[in-house]
Each structure stands twice: as C-alpha cells, then as structure tokens.
Design goal:
The complex is a heterodimer of chains A (294) and B (319). Chain A is built from eleven helices and two strands. In chain A, helix 2 runs parallel beside helix 4 and helix 3 packs antiparallel against helix 8. Chain A is globular. Helix content of chain A is 72%, strand content 3%. The longest helix of chain A is centred in the N-terminal third of the chain and has 32 residues. The N and C termini of chain A lie far apart (47 Å). Chain B has a two-stranded antiparallel ribbon with strand order 1-2. Chain B has one domain. The two termini of chain B are 16 Å apart. Chain B is mainly alpha-helical and 319 residues long. Chain B is globular and about 55 Å long. Chain B has 14 helices and two strands, in the order ααααααβααααβαααα. The chains are: A mainly alpha (294), B mainly alpha (319). Chains A and B meet through helix 4, helix 9 and helix 11 of A and helix 5, helix 11 and helix 13 of B.
Chain lengths: 294, 319
C-alpha cells in the first residue's frame, strides 16, 4: 500500500490535468451537442490560443495583470477566428454528410498547424506564471502551486457559470432547444443560423482560453493541437457527447485513470484511457451521462 | 469505349515503370500502388456500405507489423508472411468490427478511432515485440533472386523486383475487391448504404453484412500494410495513428468515393503532388488542407466524380 500522501499528490495532479482538459472538452462537447459537428480543429484553436497568449505577453510585457490581458486577448482572438470559420465556411457543409464536416475540420487542423509554424517557428515557447500566483501551498505534505490551485477553482467555476447560462437564461434555453430539435426551434421563429454561430464562437473562446491558461505550465510547441484533440475526444466520449456534466465527469475520470494508470501499468497508461473509451462506447455508446441520439 | 480493358492496360503500363531506369519513378509508383489498395479497401466501407471508419489505419498497421515480425524475427518466407498480414488484420477487424457495427454514424467513427488508437498505443509501447517507439526497421526484402532469370527483368535492382511483385499482388487484390463489390453481396452493401431500414425490412441481416464488409476492408488494408512495411523498409507506430487514417480518407475523398477506382486515383494524385510540393516547401500540410477544402466545397464527388460529370455534360451537348 503506497503512502497516502503520495496517493493524494497523484490524484491532485490528475485533478489539475482534468480541469485543463475540461476547459477544452466543454467547448468541443457544446459544439457537438448543438451543431452535431465533431470539430477536429478545436485542438488547433487551443494551440493558437496558447501562441496568441505568448504573442500578447511579448507585446505587453510581464508586469502585474499583464498575463490576464494576454489570456483574455487570446481567447477573444480565437473566438473571432471561430466565428469567421463558421460564418464563411463550415455553415455551407451542414446539409452534407458528416464525413464532409469531419474532413473539413481536419483540413483546418492541417492549415492552422502550418500557419502557426510559419508565424512562431518550431521551437518551444513558454510564459512565466503570473505574479501573485508564483508561490505554492503545502497540504498534507504535498506542494500545490498556487497557479494549479487557481485552475482547480476556475474549472468548477466555469462549469457552474456554464450551467447557470444554459439553465437560467433565454439564450441557454435556445441552445438546449437547438440541441433537441433544430427544425422546430427555427419554426418557432428563433434565428438558428446566428445561434449556431454564437455556439461555435463560445466553443472556440473556451478552446482559446484553455490554450492561453495552459502556457505557464506547459511549453507551447507545434503538435500540441493533435495531442490535445485526442484527449478531448476521449473525455467527451466517456462523459457523453453533448452532455455538459458528462464532460465534467469525463475529465475527472480521465485525469484519475491517467495518473493512477501510470502507477499500475507504467508503460501502458495511454492504453488504459483508450481501453476505457472503447469500453464506454461498447457498453453505453452515448457516454456515462449522455442521452442516446435519435 | 466501354470495351477498353483499362485495368489490364494500367497494370501492363505499371510493369514497365522500372524500364524507365529511374529509381525515383519506381519508388513513387510502388507507393501509389500500395496506398491505392489501402484507399480502395477503405472505400468498400465508405463508398459502398456507407460506414465512415476513422480507424482504418489500424489494419494497415497490423498488416505491416505482422509481415515485418514474421519475416524479420521469425525469418519466415514472404509467401507465408504476406497472406498472414491479411489473415491477422481480418481477425482484428472481426473482433473490433463486431462491436463497431452495433453503433451508427458518428459513434461508429469514434469507436473505430478508439480501437485504432489502442492498436497504435500497443505498437508504440510494446518494445519487446513491436520495437516500441523505434518501430521495426530493416524488414528484409523477399527472396526474389529467381526474377533475374526472367527475360527483360533480369538486370533490374532488388527494389525493382519487389516493385514488380507488388504490382502483381496489388493487381490481384484490386481484381478480388472488384469482384466483391460487383457481386450480389456488393449490391446488398449498396442497398444498406442507401437505406438500412429498408434492407432490414426485406430480411437482410444488416449488421452481419456490415461486419463482413468491415472484415474484407480490414483484410485488404492489412495486405496493403504488409507490402508497405517491406517497401518502406520498416513498420512504425505511425502506421496505425489516427492521422494516417485521415490521410487515407483524404485520398478516398480526393479521388471520389462514388467509383471503384476513384480512391486509387486519389492516392496517385496525392502522392505525386506530395513529391512535387515537398521539394519546394516544407508546408505540405498547408497545401493538403487547402486542396481538401477546395475539393469539399467545389468537387464533392472528387476527381473521378468531376470528370464523369464533365463527360456527361459533353455527351448531352453532342446528342
């Protein structure tokens, strides 16, 4: 039996990873839930968010509060990019088969990946932690950096905020209705076209936000887009495509399986999450908390 | 016009590529022949049965590793190691497909992806058998010394001999796949694509047909992988990675899912384009993505679809 403080540290690191992942996966899940498009480019938006945050820090420097400018700026930039992509291109593929939408978002992965390489090169970039969150906290013999603590609080906060918007506002009701039956919502006089754009913009915003927030703890490199999208897919599939709390649960499960899988099968930890995904798909294709598609 | 045996002509032409004397042309032609088979095998699922598999690279990778391990580690002859690639890939396709065909649409795609990633993870980590991250380099060429006794082909290099062998084997595979999709079984797959409920009503066991199609597609992808491992002088985990699956999807779409030869044409265009572009710029993915977007928006039928509709338009003008 390993010592409990080690287990605690392990599950805490899994939880931090889960909250980062939740930021990304929630946007992916939202877009799938409403638009029924599995957006491969979500990972690219995440990567571009990280690069944009780096770029803004280069411009404004690293003084107090500057980091947050970079984070907000990057997330907004990606939101605008997402809006453009949906308005100008993706919209014209809704009527076509799923394969076309899937391949379109994959084409974006290829294009955006090279654009990022052209603009920022192939080196490893990083940003230092924002002043005020550079310290660490000691709990049960485990060192928890303040920045990770911030992420641990931010994740559930965003989840709750999201839930409040979806269930307590008019826009949220429209979004839930669009996920149920888009034709009916359109027939009732709601502008579904702009609703779709709005949802895609929000999803992209979350991807950009996640990318920007990850920069102090991970280096920014080409290839992080492809890596994260596979992880985010696993999360939404486990939790249930389009299910909001499912994504939250899926992230936590993923983080824990990965951080404890390493202890049990050191070499096969990636294997354990893919296997988990396959089992979920076989037993409950719609995920732990999702609803079966019509 | 309809009587021209295009298949035979293409194979004959392909056999004369080494006579051009260029190592580069033979290399590209070999790549095209094998990847074309891989893409055509995928089209049995997508174009004919309407199942979008996002994990077809799994069977390609399994085939490559099977042939590679058998020939390199167990020093079995090619005559056994090559069919083994098809058999092992078909077995995996049977097991994975059993679960996949129970799902529909996007969930089918996701589960095929999940299984492919499992295969990739195993290839990537199981150092003892697959060589792990380093892959399985230096898979030997099959023993083709007997080809030196043949007229015309005698003076060619070893890689040319392997090319001739792959052209013949790939041609046989194309022929077999063509027989499959043109058979009553193949027609039934098309019926399932068009209307699965209706197929169910007239008494067809849809899932069983889909599973058989899945196994056939997996088997030929495995055979393509077996050849590719030798051609590439090694099998690597990337062969089963999801980006490989999307690469072959792009070939299929580029050439045209609506015809049997479309995906092979797509493989030809994509690989030749790749060779041309990568000598000018490192940004090949950018070009590929742009081409893909243009195809998706402007030519949803792919190259073959566009050619056919152009010919139909010309035909009506003449009539």
């Amino acid at each position: 039996m390993p010592d409990p403080s080690f287990l605690f540290a392990q599950s805490l690191s899994g939880l931090t990873a889960a909250m980062f992942l939740f930021l990304i996966a929630s946007g992916l899940s939202l877009i799938f839930g409403v638009l029924r498009v599995l957006n491969f480019a979500h990972g690219s938006f995440y990567m571009l968010g990280a690069y944009l945050a780096y770029q803004v820090v280069q411009w404004v420097g690293t003084g107090t509060g500057r980091f947050w400018w970079a984070v907000i700026g990057a997330a907004l930039g990606i939101a605008i990019l997402g809006g453009l992509v949906e308005r100008l291109l993706l919209r014209h593929l809704y009527a076509k088969e799923e394969l076309y939408q899937l391949l379109f978002t994959y084409a974006l992965v290829l294009v955006l990946g090279d654009v990022a390489k052209r603009l920022w090169g192939t080196g490893q970039l990083s940003i230092s932690r924002p002043p005020g969150l550079t310290g660490a906290l000691e709990i049960f013999g485990t060192r928890l950096p303040h920045y990770n603590l911030f992420i641990l609080i931010l994740g559930p906060a965003i989840a709750l905020g999201f839930w409040a918007v979806l269930h307590r506002t008019r826009a949220g009701r429209y979004i839930r209705a669009a996920a149920q039956d888009r034709e009916m919502l359109g027939a009732l006089g709601v502008n579904v076209t702009s609703l779709y754009t709005g949802v895609f913009v929000i999803g992209s915003f979350l991807a950009g936000l996640g990318g920007a927030l990850v920069t102090p703890v991970k280096t920014v490199v080409p290839g992080m887009d492809v890596e994260i999208i596979v992880e985010a897919f696993i999360v939404v599939v486990i939790g249930g495509l389009g299910s909001f709390w499912g994504t939250f649960l899926g992230s936590i499960v993923y983080g824990q399986v990965l951080s404890f899988g390493i202890l049990i099968f050191p070499r096969f930890s990636i294997f354990s999450v893919f296997a988990l995904m396959a089992v979920v798909l076989i037993v409950r294709p719609w995920g732990l908390l999702g609803k079966p598609l019509r | 016009m309809r009587r021209v045996p295009w298949g035979v002509l293409v194979v004959m032409a392909a056999l004369f590529v080494p006579a051009l004397g260029s190592r580069f042309y033979t290399f590209v032609a070999n790549d095209v022949a094998i990847m074309g088979l891989f893409a055509v095998s995928l089209n049995v699922l997508i174009g004919y049965t309407g199942l979008v598999s996002f994990g077809h690279a799994a069977y390609f990778g399994i085939g490559a590793y099977t042939t590679g391990i058998l020939m390199k580690k167990l020093t079995l002859p090619f005559v056994l190691a090559f069919p083994a690639a098809g058999v092992v890939a078909a077995l995996f396709a049977l097991v994975f497909g059993f679960f996949c065909v129970r799902l529909t649409k996007i969930y089918f795609a996701m589960l095929t992806l999940a299984f492919a990633q499992i295969v990739w993870a195993i290839c990537f980590k199981w150092n003892g058998v697959t060589g792990g991250e380093q892959g399985l380099p230096e898979i030997p060429y099959p023993d083709l010394a007997w080809m030196q006794k043949l007229p015309f082909f005698g003076e060619l290099r070893g890689s040319d001999h392997f090319y001739l062998l792959s052209v013949v084997l790939v041609a046989v595979c194309y022929w077999a796949l063509h027989r499959v999709v043109a058979s009553p079984f193949g027609r039934m797959l098309t019926t399932i694509r068009e209307n699965p409920e209706r197929a169910e009503f007239i008494g067809v066991n849809v899932q069983r047909y889909e599973l058989i199609a899945f196994v056939i597609a997996g088997m030929f992808a495995g055979l393509a992988g077996g050849l590719f491992g030798i051609f590439n002088r090694g099998a690597f985990p990337d062969f089963a990675y999801w980006t490989k699956s999307s690469e072959v999807l792009i070939m299929t779409l580029l050439g045209g899912m609506g015809s049997f030869w479309g995906p092979a044409v797509g493989a030809l265009v994509l690989l030749v384009l790749n060779q041309q572009i990568t000598s000018y710029t490192e940004y090949w993915p950018f070009v590929l993505g742009t081409v893909l977007i243009v195809i998706l928006f402007a030519f949803p039928g792919g190259i073959v679809g566009a050619l056919e509709s152009a010919r139909a338009r010309l035909g009506t003008r003449h009539a």
